[in-house]
Amino acid sequence: MIAVVRCIILHSIKYGDSGLILKALTPDGVQSFFVASYLKNNRNKYPFLSYPLPIVECQYFTVSGSKLPKVKSLSLAVVPETQGYDFRRQAIATFMAECALKFVREETRSDDMYSFLESCILFVQRTPAVSSVYPIQFGFALASQLGFDISGSVNEHDNVVFSLDKGLVSDAPAGILSQTDSMWLQKLINSGLNEPFAEKIPMASQKNIFQAMLQYFRFHFPETGQMRSPEILHMIME
Q: How far is CA 104 from the centre of its chain?
């Protein structure tokens, strides 16, 4: 029987001459699929799989004796609306894709996670201009989805600092961010995630906060190793 699911492709890897194994986030969690051949008349049937985090409609069926469901067809469920090449948008989408692949696990079975990630993808694709602080907002929002909310019990009037183990706290003598940078971080996470951020954060503070976020992920997910995409993002913070 053919089943259909809307999903976000986290990763694809070649299998044999023309096969693929897809790792996807569905509303029921992370699932893998097998594509027998991505070629038709020696042309790639699914060029959109090279996009960061494509949202697709997947028709699949189970095969007796096979561990993975087999894909019958794939089609884009959401076509990006932006025209031309946008370096900032592409860099941010690539960072989001690497975060999702590294940190969203098989045991993360949550419809909330799927809704969260799809809404972020759509915002980056459709908003007229993506702020350079969006990777920071996305990263800490993803951490919150995974159970590591940094906001704690502080309010916007507290003098806060940011620490790796507790997040934003008002009772710590020092943290990995200065009080000024911690204040900017607090404003960022208190603002709407998929809404334009109006305030102008100094570039030095943006870079400090971004580096602190990467340290935060390494502290809580030490097994995930070094990320590659942040090197590109530093270019949009110049």
A: 9
CB 51 within 8 A of CB 80: yes
* Cβ atoms within 10 Å, residue 33: 21
* pTM given for the model: 0.90
Q: Is domain 3-76 given the CATH code 1.20.1260.10 in the classification?
A: no
Q: Are strands 29-35 and 19-26 parallel, antiparallel or unpaired?
A: antiparallel
Q: Which two tokens stand for residue 34?
A: 């097998």
- pLDDT tens for residues 76-117? 999 877 655 788 888 999 999 999 999 998 766 566 999 999
Q: Name the CATH topology of 87-237.
A: de novo design (two linked rop proteins) (1.20.1440)
143 residue type, one letter = A
**Residue 79 region, left (φ>0) first, then alpha (ψ -120 to 50), else beta?**
beta
φ, ψ at 15 (rounded to 5°): -135, 110
| pLDDT higher than 70, residue 172 | no
pLDDT at 155: 62
CA distance 146 to 157: 27
Distances (CA, A) of 45 to 18, 19, 63, 189: 11, 12, 22, 40
Q: What is the chain's alpha carbon radius of gyration, rounded to the nearest angstrom? A: 20
Q: Show me where the domains of the chain are located.
A: 3-76, 87-237
Residue 66 has pLDDT above 60, yes or no: yes
Distance CA 103, CA 98 (A): 8
CB 52 within 8 A of CB 35: no
Q: How many residues are there in the chain? A: 238
Residue type, 179: Q
